[in-house]
Amino acid sequence: MNSKYHMNIEDNIFFAKRKLVDNVYKSAQLEGIAVTFAQTEDIFNNVNVSQLRPDEIIAVLNLKNAWQYIIDAIEEEISIEYIKKIHIEIASGIIRPAGEFRDRGVGISGTNWRPRLPEEVDYEKELKEIMNNPNSLERSLNLFLWIQKCQMFIDGNKRVANLVANHEFIKNGLGILNVPVELTGLYKQKLVDFYETDQADEIKQFLYENCIDGI
Question: Does the model's pTM come out above 0.90?
Answer without folding.
Answer: yes
